[in-house]
Design a protein that fits this description.
- With about 170 residues, the chain is mostly helical.
- It has two domains: about 30 residues, no CATH class; about 130 residues, Phycocyanins (Globin-like), CATH 1.10.490.20.
- Helix 4 crosses helix 5 and helix 4 packs across helix 8.
- The longest helix has 24 residues.
- It is globular, with a radius of gyration of 18 Å.
- Bound molecules: phycocyanobilin (CYC).
Length: about 170
């Protein structure tokens, strides 16, 4: 598992080089956004349950067929599994936010996920929609917490979306 700093060190060490201007700029920008990243994580933590619940409610409102007989989230067990998955995405997105790197998502969440979803007929498009709904709610919460320049919030959610969508071929 890597973060913004360890991944940079890894790249420069492989080449046996000191940090150059690019590396210094990227370190600066990571550390300058550090407090905001931690504030964003705190805002997510204290609202996580409600973010997942609201995103789930919106998702099923938009796509009610998911929870009707024959839908993948139909039955209490599968409904709960769906919300649990959303909670996984939110929690790991928070880790990635703080790390300034999406590696934790690749290693702990996305690896093998497509095979699992395909084998259980979990639909990718609606899952991606659920992730985007959570992103919107998170951005609202983070803004409400007074965090400015929080563009970095998009990154982990868009990464999940991109990886899931690309794999859905
Ligand atoms: C931390 C990393 C991690 C992830 C990401 C993860 C996902 C994950 N989701 C699963 C199931 C599932 N995932 C969903 C999700 C959905 N169905 C829908 O229609 C919606 C679109 C969507 C919610 C947004 C459902 C319904 C199941 C149960 C499917 C079944 O058992 O038939 C399963 C199969 C095993 C189980 O049910 O627990 C895994 C492994 N597990 C992990 O350990």
């Amino acid at each position: 598992m890597r973060d913004a700093v360890t991944s940079l060190i890894k790249n420069y060490d492989v080449a046996g080089r000191y940090f150059d201007r690019n590396a210094i700029d990227s370190l600066k920008s990571y550390f300058e956004s550090g407090t905001a990243r931690v504030q964003a994580a705190a805002a997510i933590n204290s609202n996580a349950a409600s973010i997942v619940k609201q995103a789930g409610a919106k998702l099923f409102e938009e796509l009610p067929e998911l929870i009707r007989p024959g839908g993948n989230a139909y039955t209490t067990r599968r409904y709960a599994a769906c919300l649990r998955d959303m909670d996984y995405y939110l929690r790991y997105a928070t880790y990635a936010l703080v790390a300034g790197n999406t590696n934790v998502l690749d290693e702990r969440v996305l690896q093998g996920l497509r095979e699992t979803y395909n084998s259980l007929s979990v639909p990718i498009g609606p899952t991606v929609r659920g992730v985007q709904l959570m992103k919107d709610l998170v951005k609202e919460q983070v803004a409400a917490a007074g965090v400015v320049n929080a563009a970095f919030v998009d990154e982990p959610f868009d990464h999940i979306t991109r990886e899931l969508s690309e794999q859905d071929v």
